[in-house]
């Protein structure tokens, strides 16, 4: 936009198909009456409908719900949960603490970004295979270009304890034979030939399942907003109910200072 024309066009006016509130009358949600047409939707179904404009069946919702459930660890040492716990120990409000914990979940190594990179990789790989390119060659170029393939390998543990549970449910619901799920395991086999530690983690499996359901990268990103959320309130509450400031305090003696030496002030 180079001039004020668009801004003037939008002044006091917003054109959208997403929804509108008619005070005292009704609420329109993507063209549907929220309290009539969508009244029987559970929260996850409504959330996904808002993101994608699509209705998901019972099996899909159960699988997508499991992605959230299996990634919600009430472990206060984890980077985003630590923010929630620090907010609790500092006697901040729950909303501020949890919002901050969600915000830092957009991490480059552990958080949302690897999952987004993973689903983007599967869509690009599918396109390359449709064009007749060999999977091995494509994976090799990806590693050479980016240095890694997100969704494979784990900084702390070699295996991902979430994979067996997610895979068991995927098989039960019939999602284990999807193109991207099978592709995820094919990529893992290629990577393990190069590096034994590059086993699949939950980012790859979750992204593959979502891609098979038709999620595009931006839609999956919005779905992941509450990826870790159920593990955060317990961390906040626990720290909030214990002594103020007692969550992982650090004594001055443990601080390594390499600046100017002690000096007298005149």
Structural summary, described in words:
The chain has 266 residues and is mainly alpha-helical. The chain has 3 domains: 20-55, no CATH class; 65-105 and 227-242, no CATH class; 112-225, Orthogonal Bundle (Cytochrome p450-Terp, domain 2), CATH 1.10.230.10. Helices cover 51% and strands 4% of the residues. A 3-stranded antiparallel sheet has the order 1-2-3, with no helix packed on it. The longest helix is centred in the middle third of the chain and has 19 residues, at 112-130.
Name the features.
266 residues, mainly alpha, Cytochrome p450-Terp, domain 2, 3 domains, 3-stranded antiparallel β-sheet, 3 strands, 4% strand, globular
List the helices and strands and how they pair.
Blueprint: H1 5-10, E1 19-22, E2 26-29, E3 32-33, H2 43-52, H3 58-70, H4 79-89, H5 94-103, H6 112-130, H7 135-146, H8 163-173, H9 179-194, H10 202-212, H11 217-223, H12 232-241
Antiparallel strand pairs: 1-2, 2-3
Helix pairs in contact: 3-8, 4-5, 4-12, 5-12, 6-10, 6-11, 8-10, 9-10
Distance between the termini: 58 Å
Q: Please report the first level of CATH classification, the CATH class of the largest domain.
A: Mainly Alpha
DSSP summary, beta strand count: 3
Give the H and E element order: HEEEHHHHHHHHHHH
Q: What is the name of the CATH architecture of the largest domain? A: Orthogonal Bundle
Structure annotation, total helices: 12
């Amino acid at each position: 936009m180079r001039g004020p024309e668009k801004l003037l066009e939008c002044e006091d006016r917003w054109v959208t198909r997403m929804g509108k509130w008619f005070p005292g009358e009704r609420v329109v949600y993507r063209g549907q009456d929220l309290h009539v047409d969508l009244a029987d939707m559970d929260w996850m179904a409504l959330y996904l409908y808002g993101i994608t404009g699509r209705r998901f069946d019972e099996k899909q919702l159960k699988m997508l719900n499991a992605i959230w459930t299996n990634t919600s660890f009430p472990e206060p040492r984890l980077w985003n949960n630590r923010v929630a716990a620090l907010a609790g120990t500092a006697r901040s409000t729950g909303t501020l603490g949890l919002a901050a914990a969600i915000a830092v979940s957009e991490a480059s190594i552990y958080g949302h970004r690897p999952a987004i990179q993973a689903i983007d990789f599967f869509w690009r790989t599918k396109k390359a295979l449709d064009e007749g390119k060999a999977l091995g060659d494509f994976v090799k170029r990806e590693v050479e270009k980016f240095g890694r393939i997100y969704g494979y390998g784990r900084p702390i543990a070699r295996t991902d304890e979430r994979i067996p549970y997610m895979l068991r449910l995927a098989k039960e619901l019939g999602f284990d034979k999807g193109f991207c799920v099978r592709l995820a395991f094919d990529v893992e086999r290629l990577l393990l030939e190069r590096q034994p530690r590059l086993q699949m983690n939950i980012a790859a499996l979750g992204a593959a399942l979502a891609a098979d359901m038709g999620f595009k990268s931006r839609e999956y990103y919005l779905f992941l907003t509450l990826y870790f959320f159920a593990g955060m309130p317990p961390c906040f509450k626990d720290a909030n109910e214990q002594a103020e400031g007692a969550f992982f305090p650090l004594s001055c003696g443990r601080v390594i200072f390499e600046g100017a030496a002690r000096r007298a002030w005149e």
